[in-house]
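Quarterly update from the structural biology core.
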Amino acid sequence: MMITPDTTGFQPAGDAWTDSHGDRMSVHFFDLVPNLPASLDDLPRLRHELAVQTAEDGGLIEAFVVTVDGVPALLQVVKVPYPDRPGQVFIASITVPKATASVVLRLVAQEGSPTGAKESAVLAETIVETGSPDAFYAPHPYAPQSRPRLPWHRADDPRFDEHFPGHPLSRARRWLRHMLATARLDPEFAALPPFGSAVSVSIGLPIGPFLPLWTVEEKMTFWRLEDPAAARAQLGRGGITRRPLNSTEGCEAGWLYPADGVLALSADAPPVRISAVTDETAYTSITPEEIVAAFDWIGELSVAAGGRAEMLLVRTAAVADGADNYVLMTLQFDDGRPSCVVETSPVPVGAQFWDTLPPIPKPNTAGFARARDADQARTDGRLTMWAVQTWDVHPFRLMLSYKPNPALVTG
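Predicted structure, tokenized:
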């Protein structure tokens, strides 16, 4: 394990541990760039963003930057309601983020029956002290403008823990104090570059406001573009550093600063502002119209690539998705006349338009050539989309790459 907790008082329960209260402790490792909304060095911003993020499902009680086994970490306590009955669940966690991975130690402490006894007692005390129940609830201390599903109130204050030692929030805080003192990190994990370090990433296919980024280990994270149009204006124009895929072909790459929400694509252009989102958010938020627009944009890039004497390829980004799948768009000259070529492999059986084409001599490959015209971008984009739709791969798992066009370079 990347983090080893003290399991005294807990019993194994599958891939977790439980204690006599039914509290469940677990360890989770994420081999991805952490999606924390800010650096550990910027606690006010981190707290604010975490409070806003958790407001829809429950409420953030507290968050602190701490150390675990000498390594910076994030402590959080969140409360959420039971989905099907009265009462609350308190989730305490210690997250140790690194540049490209993180480990989380978590405790889930559930409220038993009867529920609300602590809150009722603190409310009664508040009325005695102030003459009114109004002071029981307060704006969230980290994000006053937020409206969490479970509001922050006086009973969340740690000064009440000693009066209600059996309450799940009190148990969660005791557990956190003990884990901070006793948990140990795997030395190799502890030695990884810290969270906030620049991460080299390959650029995926932007669809709508979302951009997938790939690390060298083929790990993908999703980011929301603050200004999608400005980001697309930089991509595919020949001014971005490329990561070699083979001796002649490369994909666009950049430097990701996850804690700052910045993607640097080139030294000569302003950084791209981004914010982390979950896979689910990206996959479920895009529309069919945004997917079509993405392929039309690819068609525009094919025109720009031709102007640079390059070929544009759309291919799967991960080996697991079938690294040999590709669509190639290029210009060629026949008797001095320019023509546009779209070539794809494997043969897109059942695809719109492609099924009407005769086979070409190249094995397991289909292709189409036509005279260059004003509709080149749209034609290239749609032919690419129809071919890709037969791959059984989501467009987010595609990547654009470029290589020289010998016919244009030598011609």
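Residues 34 and 301 are 31 Å apart (CA to CA).
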